[in-house]
Design brief:
The chain is built from twelve helices and two strands. By secondary structure, the protein is mostly helical.
């Protein structure tokens, strides 16, 4: 290895290390601030009671229920549509065709669209045009539309990591196109797919603007998907901006939100390992 290449490698290593340390310090500071501000107020009652006095007292049970319902609708809708669209674009459409380039362009535009735009669109289409009103269903469907570009793009990149020689070998052995996708491409791209699901769920859980215009502000427990519901992110926003004397519940709610995100990431990680073990995939 030449001196110039060694210096470049050392420079990149030092730059990445410095960036990692800075990010770690910033994240640690935020995490310590949140935990210190809310850990004293975490209790079983906080998780099992509904908000009272505008959120100053009580818990966030109804908020958690609304959040999980919205997330469930989002995943159930986005997962099959996103996976199917990514397979179509990656495996069936010619990568050098104008249609493929146009679809990539559209995905890039949608992925960079501000979430409040999706919220306004969801409000007009789901709440007004379809007559769903401010509801858990409207919020979940809007979030599904919002995370679809990210999910589709991530799955396409995962499929790209599967070498073409594997597809050609499967074809030479008489395996159909659909069979090779089902038996080879998807299992070998599963690591990237699960990672994309994690990122999509994290974005959906952290979303506020889109849900303000679709799911609503109501703090009561939704009895059906047609009832209005408040997500944790919206709850944190409302308490911090509109309710005085509720800082302790803001931090406690933030801890719960972080715990939910980490729990979903852990569950998906274990499901990925189980899937790899069942399929016998070499990583």
């Amino acid at each position: 290895m030449s001196i110039s290449k060694l210096n470049l490698k050392l420079h990149n290593y030092m730059l990445c290390s410095a960036a990692f340390i800075v990010c770690l310090i910033m994240f640690s500071h935020m995490a310590v601030s949140i935990v210190a501000g809310g850990v004293e107020h975490l209790s079983l009652g906080f998780l099992s009671e509904v908000p009272q006095m505008g959120g100053r007292e009580g818990g966030i049970f109804s908020i958690i229920v609304s959040t999980l319902l919205i997330l469930f609708i989002c995943v159930v809708v986005a997962l099959p549509i996103g996976l199917g669209a990514s397979i179509l674009i990656s495996e069936y459409i010619n990568k050098s065709s104008k249609l493929s380039k146009f679809l990539y362009f559209v995905l890039d535009i949608l992925a960079s669209t501000p979430s409040i735009v999706f919220g306004l669109m969801g409000n007009q289409f789901f709440c007004v045009q379809l007559g769903m009103g401010f509801s858990v269903l409207s919020g979940g469907l809007t979030l599904a539309l919002m995370v679809l570009p990210l999910f589709i793009t991530g799955c396409i990149e995962s499929f790209k990591d599967v070498e073409d020689r594997i597809r050609y070998s499967a074809c030479a052995l008489g395996l159909s196109k659909l069979g090779s996708i089902k038996k080879l491409v998807i299992p070998m791209a599963s690591k990237g797919i699960f990672l994309t699901i994690m990122l999509s769920i994290c974005r959906a859980l952290a979303e506020t603007a889109a849900l303000l215009y679709t799911a609503g502000y109501v703090t009561r427990t939704p009895e059906s998907v047609m009832d209005s519901g408040r997500s944790i992110s919206v709850h944190i926003f409302d308490l911090s901006m509109n309710v005085s004397g509720a800082d302790h519940n803001v931090y406690a709610s933030a801890i719960v939100l972080i715990a939910i995100v980490m729990s979903f990431n852990f569950i998906l990680y274990m499901l990925q390992r189980l899937y790899i073990k069942m399929e016998g995939i070499m990583q």
